[in-house]
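To assess whether ligand presence alters the predicted conformation, the chain was also submitted together with NAP. Input:
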Amino acid sequence: MRAAWYLKNGEARDVMVVGDWPTPQAGAGEVLVRLVTSGVNPSDVKSRRARPLTEAIVPHSDGAGVIAAVGDGVPASRVGERVWIWNGQWGRALGTAAEYIALPSAQAVVLPDSTDFAAGACFGIPALTALQAVYLAGDLRDKPVLVTGASSAVGHYVTQLVTLAGGQVIGTVGSPAKAAHAQAAGMREAIFYKTESVAQRVKDLTAGRGVPVIIDMDFASTAGLLAEGVLAPHGRVVCYGANTPEIAFNFRAMLFQSVALQFFLVYELTAADRQRAQDRLTELLQSQQLQHPIGARFTLDQIVQAHETVEAGQTVGNVVIDLT
Ligand SMILES: NC(=O)c1ccc[n+]([C@@H]2O[C@H](COP(=O)([O-])OP(=O)(O)OC[C@H]3O[C@@H](n4cnc5c(N)ncnc54)[C@H](OP(=O)(O)O)[C@@H]3O)[C@@H](O)[C@H]2O)c1
């Protein structure tokens, strides 16, 4: 089969190779999926740059395709199923940047017929992260919710899900084009975080009270906002990202505001959380309540450009590689 891989950490153009790779086989409890799409996420970029490796890595955790074969213990009736993949390259070397992937049957989830394969490449990380974040945020009905990076891959799903839950999204965005993208997902108020005071705008929009909930993609900047009264007392921050790994924050402000702070990693959801998120996603897909904007598509031979597009951060929508 054709695949992309790297043998050492570095920039995509320096380390990524595209060529022939042995087609995997489904082992016991596994399915072999003929991939149609592979999703590219910031995590794939971070892994390529810095996650220690001892063998060749076929990158990307997300993707979608059709089950081509099953291993012992998996019902033969799964052959031919349209599926989307989660954790394709988490704790395993061979991800979805290839024509085939063999992985545990549970990691290939049925993709409804009404959902296309490009959308299916956005579920394992962006959609499931958003579903878990919104679940952890609690009851959002009639509440203003600050969503940082409301137009990013995860943030766009968060914005849709908060809106579906009856919350009102105040979103931070980097440009008018990104504001329009988030507004199409339900965002009520845009804050241009590069040119406006986020704290002042949030206070103005909430009559000085602050929001009860923040769903956050960059704790490095949000930590500072917490000391500026952006969060109402006893408010909750659900955080899934940060632009820098080491972050200092004002403990006193957090303590005196009785802030609830929750972090999580989508790769490491508990079985119960994963099942709940998958079930909710299936329900939303079947009722066609979600938008899945694809911002850029590439071939496998263009995987370097695909990674560089994610790194540049200027694409509105998800980055997907077509494998057929
Ligand atoms: N915990 C988890 O399991 C998990 C899961 C998924 C993602 N993540 C992490 O979450 C982050 C976002 O992922 P993604 O896939 O949604 O990213 P993405 O689609 O690549 O979006 C990144 C964009 O967000 C905007 N942004 C950056 N910092 C911002 C800030 N402080 N406030 C507002 N907007 C900001 C930037 O665009 P503009 O400046 O042009 O607006 C940037 O290009 C990444 O760090 C990723 O690694 C974590």
